[in-house]
Write a structure and sequence with these properties.
Elements (H helix, E strand, L loop, with lengths): L13 E5 L14 E5 H8 L6 H20 L2 H6 L1
Antiparallel strand pairs: 1-2
InterPro entries: HNH_nuc (IPR003615)
Pfam family, one: HNH_4
Protein name: HNH nuclease domain-containing protein
Length: 80
């Protein structure tokens, strides 16, 4: 699921997005990488900081993504 729009994702139409864009904070840390719709990432959010309401709305999807991506691997969970 796209953390920004809530849309279901297909492999051919997803991006790994920097939640806080590289232009604002050059950070490739795991916590800053989220699943996003390619359309949203490349045409709507782009290199902008998400607004406070957008971040608040994305809170649960981001936490769910972190749990799925990083907690499933013991080594990553410890590091993360």
């Amino acid at each position: 699921m796209c953390v920004w729009s809530g849309a279901s994702l297909r492999l051919e139409a997803l991006d790994i997005d920097h939640a806080l864009p590289w232009s604002a904070r050059p950070c490739g840390d795991l916590w800053n990488l989220v699943l996003a719709s390619r359309r949203v990432n490349q045409h709507e959010k782009r290199d902008q900081l998400p607004s406070a309401p957008t971040l608040a709305q994305a809170r649960e999807p981001i936490l769910a993504w972190w749990r799925t991506a990083w907690d499933a691997d013991a080594a990553l969970a410890e590091q993360f």
